[in-house]
């Protein structure tokens, strides 16, 4: 009985070794433009986003130019 891919990815994520995300189209949490985004922000705005890993694939993120703009993202395989 071996470990499956989901278990392996989850173990790596818990160690902070790997980040896995699929396509996610929606409005950017920073500029509102609808496009492919990761962790709630479009690629253009991603340089303005900072965050904190909270465990279990959960990230608390915020706009560095507007720290009151906070959102939570859950990344689970």
Question: Helix and strand layout, with pairings?
Answer:
Layout: H1 5-14, E1 25-27, E2 34-38, E3 41-42, E4 49-55, E5 58-63, E6 66-74
Antiparallel strand pairs: 1-2, 2-3, 4-5, 5-6
Describe it for me?
The chain is mainly beta. It has one domain. The protein is 13% helix and 42% strand. The protein contains one helix and six strands, in the order H-E-E-E-E-E-E. It has one helix spanning 5-14; strands at residues 25-27, 34-38, 41-42, 49-55, 58-63, 66-74. A three-stranded antiparallel beta sheet has the order 1-2-3, with no helix packed on it. The longest helix has 10 residues, at 5-14. The protein is elongated. The model has no long low-confidence stretch (mean pLDDT 78).
């Amino acid at each position: 009985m071996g470990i499956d891919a989901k278990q392996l990815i989850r173990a790596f994520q818990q160690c902070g070794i790997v980040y896995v995300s699929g396509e996610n189209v929606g409005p950017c949490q920073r500029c509102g433009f609808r496009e492919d985004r990761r962790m709630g922000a479009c690629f253009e705005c991603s340089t303005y986003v900072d965050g904190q890993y909270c465990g279990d694939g959960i990230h608390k993120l915020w706009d560095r130019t507007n720290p009151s703009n906070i959102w939570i993202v859950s990344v689970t395989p």
